[in-house]
Design brief:
This protein has 209 residues and is an all-alpha fold. It is built from eight helices and no strands. It is found in: Membrane.
């Protein structure tokens, strides 16, 4: 998808915008499908606890997102600029959370997939808004789309990242802090998850991404 975007879909775009648009394209193919996949994986299992054993469906949902973040990480590494260091760190930290949940402890997918849903539910709107923002300077249509999308996008993004995300994180931290999951999710694992997710939410709120 990335190669098709770079070599075909956005081939007439300026070189600087071409790679960013291709990254948005794979994000479009990941974000909304990931929301549906993760939601179905969560609700397919009646045991929706923070320390529940991962089901095969939940593991597949995690693998899908691991693939996306790995490819997008390669994009940032290949087209590296000093401003991309934050995104590289974000992707590495996110991969750590997904991979430890999927392959190291085999528990906690309910929590991680719920956070994934909260992170990606704004993805479609955000990527369309970002693509429009890239071309708003030389396209009246892009400028119009960017202007129309900005108010609802900011409102939606603020509610999800500023309210729903922190509320769920508080409940997740409260559960793990009680120690009831230490036998299946070691303390250093869930503490690292909390640090990564709190950092990601904080950065997304202050940077709008």
């Amino acid at each position: 998808i990335y190669i098709l975007g770079y070599s075909l879909v956005f081939r007439h775009w300026p070189s600087g915008a071409r790679s960013e648009a291709s990254s948005c394209l794979i994000s479009l193919f990941h974000g909304t499908p990931a929301v549906f996949l993760a939601s179905c994986a969560i609700y397919s299992d009646s045991n929706r606890g923070f320390s529940a054993t991962n089901t095969p469906f939940q593991s597949a949902a995690l693998d899908f997102s691991v693939a996306y973040f790995f490819v997008d990480l390669l994009h940032y590494v290949f087209f590296f600029s000093p401003g991309d260091a934050l995104f590289i760190g974000h992707h590495l930290a996110t991969l750590f959370v997904f991979l430890t949940c999927r392959y190291l402890v085999g528990h906690g997918a309910f929590a991680i997939l719920t956070l994934l849903v909260l992170a990606e539910v704004t993805s479609f709107c955000q990527n369309v808004w970002t693509l429009a923002g890239v071309r708003k300077g030389d396209s009246k249509l892009a400028a119009r789309v960017y202007r129309l999308l900005s108010p609802p996008f900011y409102a939606f993004y603020s509610v999800v990242r500023g309210v729903l995300g922190p509320v769920f994180m508080y409940k997740m931290g409260e559960f793990y802090w009680s120690g009831v999951a230490d036998g299946v999710v070691p303390r250093w694992i869930w503490v690292s998850w909390m640090v990564v997710v709190i950092g990601a939410i904080s950065v997304s709120i202050f940077n709008g991404d």
